[in-house]
């Protein structure tokens, strides 16, 4: 599982609600909203799926800018699982 988070800056505060609703229809979690900013978290199976989703965010009506704050690497969850002690798996 690959995870990415960031925020979207809407053209104006009134657009933020519409952007938030559109994200939810795309199965993207909205974790916070303040003014014209919408914080999101997206989880997909591959980096390619994440890239496709992130690229499409700019096309949402009312979006001024998209900022990526964090993303995990494909397969990194497997590496972490391998590092855990046997009794926690």
Architecture overview:
The chain has 89 residues and is an alpha+beta fold. The chain has a domain at 1-46 and 63-72: Alpha-Beta Plaits, CATH 3.30.70. It has 3 helices and 4 strands. It has a 4-stranded antiparallel β-sheet. A hairpin with a 2-residue loop joins β2 (29-34) and β3. It starts with a strand and ends in a 6-residue tail after the last helix. The mean pLDDT is 87.
Which descriptors would you attach to this protein?
single chain; 89 residues; Alpha-Beta Plaits; four-stranded antiparallel β-sheet
Task: Write a brief structural summary.
With 89 residues, this protein is α+β, with helices and mostly antiparallel strands.
Task: Give a topology summary.
Blueprint: E1 2-10, H1 13-25, E2 29-34, E3 37-44, H2 47-57, E4 63-71, H3 76-83
Order of SSEs? EHEEHEH
Enter the CATH topology name of the domain at 1-46 and 63-72.
Alpha-Beta Plaits
- How many DSSP E strands? 4
Low-confidence stretches: none
* Mean pLDDT across all amino acids: 87
Largest beta-sheet details:
4 strands, antiparallel
**Which structural class matches the secondary elements?**
alpha+beta
For the largest sheet, list the strands in their spatial order. Answer: 2-3-1-4
Number of helices: 3
SS strand fraction: 35-45%
CATH architecture designation of the domain at 1-46 and 63-72 = 2-Layer Sandwich
Distance between the termini: 17 Å
Residues in helices, as a percent range: 25-40%
Which radius of gyration do the C-alpha atoms yield? 15 Å
Q: Give the CATH class of the domain at 1-46 and 63-72.
A: Alpha Beta
Specify the overall morphology: elongated
């Amino acid at each position: 599982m690959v995870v990415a988070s960031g925020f979207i800056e809407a053209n104006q505060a009134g657009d933020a609600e519409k952007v938030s609703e559109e994200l939810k229809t795309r199965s993207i979690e909205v974790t916070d909203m303040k003014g014209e900013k919408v914080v999101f978290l997206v989880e997909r199976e591959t980096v390619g799926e994440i890239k496709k989703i992130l690229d499409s965010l700019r096309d949402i009506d009312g979006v001024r800018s998209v900022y990526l704050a964090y993303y995990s690497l494909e397969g990194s969850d497997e590496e972490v699982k391998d590092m855990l002690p046997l009794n926690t798996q």
